[in-house]
Amino acid sequence: MKKSLLVFAAALACANASVQADTLKKIKDSAAVTMGVRDSSGALSYTLGGSRYAGYHVEICQRIIDNLDKAIGKKSEVKYISVTSQNRIPLTQNGTVDIECGSTTNNTARQKDVAFVNTTFVEEVRIAVKANSGITNISQLNGKNVATTTGTTSVQLLRKHERATGVDFKEIFGKDHADSFLLLETGRADAFVMDGAILAGNIARSKSPADFKIVGEVLSTEPIAIMLRKDDPAFKKTVDDSIKALMKSGEISKLWTKWFEQPIPPSNTRVGMTPNENTKFAWANPNDKPAEDYAKK
Amino acid sequence: MSAWDWQVFCKDTIDQAIVASCFGSGNDQSYLDWLLSAWGWTLKVSALALVLALMVGICVGVIRTLPHRTLALAGDAWTELFRNIPVLVQVFLWYFVVPELLPAMKRLPSYFLVVCALGFYTSARISEQVRAGIQSIPKGQLYAGLAMGLTLAQTYRYVLLPVALRMVIPPLTSEAMSIVKNSAVAFAVSIAELVMFARQASEETSRDIEIYLAVTMLYFVSSLGVFALARLIEIKVKVPGFLGAKQ
Known about the structure:
The complex is a heterodimer.
Chain A: H1 2-21, H2 23-30, E1 32-37, E2 40-41, E3 45-47, E4 53-54, H3 56-72, E5 77-82, H4 88-93, E6 99-105, H5 108-111, E7 114-116, E8 121-130, E9 145-149, H6 153-165, E10 170-174, H7 177-185, E11 191-195, H8 196-205, E12 212-229, H9 233-248, H10 251-261, H11 277-284, H12 291-296
Parallel strand pairs in A: 1-5, 1-6, 9-10, 9-11
Antiparallel strand pairs in A: 2-3, 3-4, 6-12, 7-12, 8-11, 8-12
Helix pairs in contact in A: 3-9
Chain B: H1 31-63, H2 69-83, H3 87-101, H4 110-135, H5 139-147, H6 152-167, H7 169-182, H8 194-205, H9 208-236
């Protein structure tokens, strides 16, 4: 009994070691790729029900895997794993997820644990308010309730802003984006500070989209990228090359139009967002700079 | 896995620089300050909810044993209503639905609404235990009290409750410990308590393991504290020769 356990443990250890070494080889040997996806990250990555996933980043990843298949010379099966903000980094680190196609901000703290491929989307943090509130910029939020979502970088951003400008507002935290939007909808919050794409998506899906608008200056700029395991340069290069090809051929802006400007399943609503200048710049000059580099500008 | 980095708690929450004393000064706040304030919120919500739960739970438990059908039925209804709805759903009902029906409640702080939700949920469970406690006393004691000329209220006050309440201390201890753990649902409605701290701070620092270990430890310590306190009360109020206490 004890012996068989030992053998099992040793086998596990070996399996683990080989996972860490070379993702390309692993994909080739197992003829399967595990894609980490999100259940509701706006139009970037979301579920269509069951184990079907779609979105801008999911489609980019499917293109990347098609290219991988060509390089390897055989078709690999795509397995989807739904990840959350809390488990996406550990699951990528330990090899459960080969490629994470969600809405992860590329920053230096995370680069210690994982690798990011070239930025495909640059997010701008904005303010959503009720259209009839008369609020047009952040300084008018003095003394107001401001909603944001727990477990996002926006919480930290609000804190910084509060300190720097002396604007005093009361933060309230939704447990997810739908919850934070509900806070705004029910009047518990006067504003919802979050990534522009998420705000636009929530407004588009609300009962009366005309009641809400996105106002004010861009509070922060963050590169959102597809995430891979760290220390596997060969895999990263293959993925980066696929993305560069998409950018060079202009295919990526077609993908953008498909997911952000046209009606998307399941409810056939449109997000209605054109790519911002930073996103266009990232497409023209492929790079994997972290968020800190954007803040310096 | 990279090595553990406990320095994360000494970091400033704004610029992520390590503060020498680990505690922020003035307006600056370190993650340790934040952790402690989150612990404070967990304890505050749990304590208030427990007080509410004990008061309401004991009343409802007593009412359910009264020889008055309508009152007993009302008590049963209370218990079944509150213990058959998941506690997280109750928190949302109190936070989003009740204030829509009673607009005056919109001005109440959100922790108050969570205390209501958690307190009433637990009160249903406590009422069940108190009822069981009272009903486990032989019926003869009630009749003896009444036969001696005590009113029903006096019989409860001097004959039944002193025994029943001592008897239910152990199950009430479990309820008190669960309330500390159940208070984690408060995070869903914007209370800056331990679970919210854990989610937010691990997002900001990417040191999930250290943060969750610290939070786990604090939950454990809080629950154990509640247990120790309850055990102390149990020993203090015991009657020699009664309910297994030594003579």
